[in-house]
Predict the structure.
Amino acid sequence: MIKNISTSRRTFLHGLSASSLVALAPRLSAAPMQLPALRQLAGGHPLIGAAVPTHFDKRLNAQEKAILSSQFDSVTPENCMKWQSLCRKQGEYNFGPIDRLVEMAKANKQKVVGHTLIFNRDGNYPDWLFRDGGKEADSKLVWKRVEAHVVKLMTRYKGRIDSWDVLNEFVESHDPGYRVTDFTRFLGKDYPVRLFKLAAEIDPKAKLTYNDFAVENPKRQKAILAFVRSLQDSGCRVDVIGSQSHLEIGDDVGKNINSMIKNFAAIGVRSAFTELDVDVISRKLFWNPKTRPAAVLQNPYPVSCPDEVLQQQAKVYHSVFEAVMANRKNVDRVTMWGITDRNSWLNNWPWKRVNHGLLFDRASAPKPAFHSIAKILARR
């Protein structure tokens, strides 16, 4: 049962100091129900969310389900709403996993994020989408299919989805300014305008989000800001810009995030952190083809993560939430991309290793990052 928010915050703040956070962790690990709930501390401003795996009823253990229901007031389906997962065969939709997620969220009094209507990346769509029998489909047929898919999905969950990630990963900061994919090849670079107008027509009350990666990077932020302005100039409603924010230890992002939120607010758009995690194993070597062979051999923490590394991780989470709470009226939600380290995608991306990127460890115990965030939220 959720306690009164003010009472919960006062209880948490009583006797809490920076030096007590780490000392508190073992006691709270032994009795997880004593943990302050992030959703209560934030009070919905912003929403505190988590990504949920497709078969969450089977993949999550009892402790993880308890964390999901008690800590978060927003949920995002990791994959089951993406087109290639939802409709592998033309005309055959598998709504079961989404239906179960929506019902679970209703029972837990959680908002649901529709992720995502269109993912502008090759491979993130069913094979049949751009085919017409044995030949390529024409642009009219492709748009007809896109339109039918969006109408079907949004109409089914109208009134039950708080926010839709209408478009995912369209912008590039280099020429031509957008990611060239089969969507742009068949529908042209302006198809996002049609897409956002369609979504707004179907559900006028749902928040409409443009979602992309590394939005906290100033160069990408500038390009995304220009893109959203172009959508607005074309008569589109864009309520939120989502930054996936897959960060890593050592990232100094506080100032960039602060300016990002302010820049988006200046054009009437709120910010969201849609896929937040903080990798404890640097990915920088991986992105260089010359050093990638060495990078993929890294697996430094196969059993547990050293406390000094977890403290570095907590600093990154701390900087994100300091910026968020300083601009909270312009932040819609902060979603962690997973619930515990056990079910984090970072264990397999961008190479397979044991990772520790979330707020709860493999035993569902809260980490220093959790306590750092809770302390910031409790100050509100």
About this structure: The longest strand covers residues 270-279. The longest helix spans residues 307-326. The chain is about 40% helix and 15% strand.
